[in-house]
Specification:
CATH class of the largest domain: Alpha Beta
Helix content: 10-25%
Order of helices and strands: EEHEEEEHEEHEEHEEHEHEEEE
Number of domains: 3
Number of helices: 6
Strand content: 25-35%
Radius of gyration: 19 Å
Structural class: alpha/beta
Largest sheet: 8 strands, mixed
CATH topology of the largest domain: Rossmann fold
Distance between the termini: 21 Å
CATH architecture of the largest domain: 3-Layer(aba) Sandwich
Length: about 325
Amino acid sequence: MTQKHESRKKGCHAATVLSNVRAGECFWKMRLRFSGEAAGAFARFRPGQFIEFDTSDLAIPATESIPNALRDGARRSVLLRRPFSFSDVAVQGDATLADLLYCVVGPASLRMTTLRAGDVASLIGPLGNGFTVPAGKRTALLVVGGMGLPPIRCLARLLSTEHKDVEAIAFIGARTVASLPLEERPAAFDGGLSLSVPTFATLGVHSMVATDDGSAGHRGPVTECLARWLQENVDRDRESLIVYACGPERMLEAVAQIAAERDIDCQVSMERRMACGIGLCQSCAIECRVEDSTETVYKLCCQDGPVFDAREVVFGAETA
């Protein structure tokens, strides 16, 4: 089952915004700087862990800057923090820098776009349990669905620095080329299946892209790319393979099934509405199997996850 990390110091921290720029049709990338005690806490951040970002006191953008689809709800009060996972974390001297890639989908993320260099953000973290790299693994298959990219990108960084003997291959999927959460724009894609995506190429990770409408890479779900690769590399030792995935739950279920059919280890980062992030509200329950039993139990995404062994998750189950 999912291995938990040792206890790490978490708390409410202040982070200085170094930059906050648009990185696509509805995507923004924010770089944060942690200093002092927070720098130490986030230096130990593991891919797949998350933070809870406070947007309650942030300004509402000028009306002309608000997308039409969000204008009706833009002025709604935002009381709860929002969970995010970093796409990159790096220690720089006595500070820790972190990149937060986010999509503007509602009043909270809309307010985040008003932060400027020098502003201070309040967040709680590091929270939850992230991805682990078991001994003996030689090939990591990284599966991304839409905004599932940040923790997978962060994992790719970890593999490139701490597990250099592990070959990593990324499978990136989205509805259209415009909805790929990448800083590089459509001109970077030539329509082929196997593409050099700078987001991963800079880490030495080969990439495959899939879009539902075929506007970039493979036409169809990204899981078809994963299944094709496994079929073409059927001679690989399954014990040396591991699959990591983050994205919509239907995609995670398909990835888990593909891995289970081939008896390949698989870790999935689950998505739930985590209102508090510390296990108090019980809003992020996930039904899980009990090892060597027909019984199931409910675990909390924010404390037991977000990363789970795919074998233990009961997909399609209603949350408690």
